[in-house]
Amino acid sequence: MNRRFILDCDPGHDDAVALLTAARFLDVIGITTVFGNSNVTNTTRNALALCEAAGLDIAVHPGSDRPIAVDAAVHSAQSIHGQSGLDGAALPPPTRKPHDQDAVNFIIESALQETDLTIIAVAPLTNLARAITRAPQIVNRISEISIMGGSTTFGNVTAAAEFNIFADPEAAAVVFASKIPKRMVGLNVTTTFGIASEHIARLRTSGQLLAQEIAGALDYYLGRQSAHYQRQFAPMHDVCAVIPYSHPSLIEYQDLHVAVECQGTLTRGQTVCDQRGMRRDDSAAPGASSTAVAMTAQGDAIVEVVMDSLLYYP
Ligand code: RIB
Ligand code: CA
Questions:
Q1: Which of 8, 10, 168, 219 is catalytic?
Q2: Phi then psi dihedrals of residue 267, to 5 deg
Q3: CA within 20 to 30 Å of 146's CA: 110, 186, 295, 312, which one?
Q4: pLDDT higher than threshold 90 for residue 75
Q5: Distance (Å, rounded) from C-alpha 273 to C-alpha 285?
Q6: For the chain, what are the domain ranges?
Q7: Among 42, 39, 31, which residue's Cα sits nearest to residue 9?
């Protein structure tokens, strides 16, 4: 098995956990960054700082700073992740620089060179959409895309839309309409479990430097989750897109047709998951394609995978 991975992310507290978990268990050949939780300058700096603090020799390729639609607003999730995108973390500023090949060209080149490439996408899908548009031939070269995004039920930015899709619905529509094999884990699963204060206490008292730094970040993130959503735990949204490759038994999927609503006044950014029973492709909604959609997860076991990953690093 020479399955190799790219992590497309917007660190971001839960992205940070996904990055450390992916690097712990998978062959990650590169990290691509994009706007989302903060601007792309911040998300790139945060990715570099995390890799340096964890001793990970993985290049960071900076990506898109705005959605693909020319008149679309640039949304951020700074209300949850703070001004820096990773508030609460005490990571030293990175000494390494971003790679001089940008995210979109890195995705294209990797797709053309790798024989078994999976892209774990845990942020707005702008980089991926630009890569597919610029080099359509990569659709036949990418083994799978694992998306944290959307939902079979409720959203978080609006009643219908989850942030990663809402931040660039046109990009998400390109990706979901593509024939690249896809799996999607949405809020219907990722909001059912998370890191609580007792987990943060375990990290703080671990004596592991990185775990202690991440504990500060997760403490901040938990506080924002509590303030915004009255939650007693911090959802680990993004690591759920890593789990199917590191611990495949922990999330169950169902094949559904999924399409992205880009026009709805109330529903723009919704992932419309057709749960009427898998229909033939010719009866699917325009722009829909068959996607493995996460329906249930073993949350406690995933939290232990996260703790194992955060305590793995010195
Ligand atoms: O809605 C959750 C998603 O939005 C996660 O990827 C989180 O990092 C934020 O980007
Ligand atoms: Ca993210």
A1: 10
A2: -120, 5
A3: 312
A4: no
A5: 10
A6: 4-310
A7: 31
Q: Ligand 2 center to residue 282 CA distance, Å? A: 33
Is the distance from the beta carbon of residue 148 to the nearest atom of ligand 1 less than 6 Å? yes
Q: Are 100 and 106 in contact (CB under 8 A)?
A: no
Nearest-5° angle of CA 126, CA 132, CA 137? 165
pTM summary value:
0.97
Q: CATH number for 4-310: choose from 3.90.245.10, 2.30.30.100, 3.90.1640.10, 3.40.50.2000.
A: 3.90.245.10
pLDDT 10s digits, 224-253: 999 989 999 999 999 999 999 999 999 999
Q: Distance, CA 224 to ligand 1 centroid (Å)?
A: 13
Query: Tell me: the pLDDT tens digits for 11-25?
Result: 999 999 999 999 999
Locate the ligand 1 atom nearest the alpha carbon of residue 11 and give its number: 8
15 assigned to active site: no
pLDDT band for position 91 (50/70/90)? Answer: very high
| Cα(283) to centroid(ligand 2), Å | 32
Given a contact cutoff of 8 angstroms between Cβ atoms, the answer to whether 185 and 294 are in contact is yes
262 has a pLDDT exceeding 80: yes
